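For the sake of transparency, this paper describes our internal protein records without simplification. Because each token names a local backbone shape, the row as a whole describes the fold. One such record is reproduced below, unchanged from the form in which we store it:
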Amino acid sequence: MKKTLCVMIAFIAVFGLFGCTVQDNQRKQSSYNGKTVNDILSGVTSEAGDTGANTPETSEKVNAPDIKCDVDLTVLNKTMVYSEVYNMMVRPGDYVGKTVKMKGNFAYAEGEGRYYFACVIADATACCSQGIEFVLKDERKFPDEYPKFNEIITVVGTFDTYYEGSNMYCQLINAVLL
């Protein structure tokens, strides 16, 4: 009985670790040939008119200066935003140098002798969160000149990667809070 229970727990743990990953060979066989969600949506809306797929889920509009964005996550629904951010984490090289605009919850952490600031987005079921670190263009004093923890923010910046030790991280540099 104990052996069966241990085998079941091990199976569930292995499935939990690898059940949602995409193997490299499956990625290579993708019919989208490396296109991003924005690329696909651009083709759909330009060919078939406005499908509503890129309409924000709320009617709230961000009062922001006209900043040209290569990847505007604020116009996608939560499922599409989560998918695009996931794609950014899996294939960061495709996004380096692109201007990204995103809306989510402000979060921060302290480590390595500095603060890390991020915009965190939950998926449509609110079970999983992904976020992107950002570094503001203009220096601000923390915490006085930053949003409150978990406050909704909109941030625009240039996508980049960096290493700490052997780990690669993604971030928006020269970012601006809108």
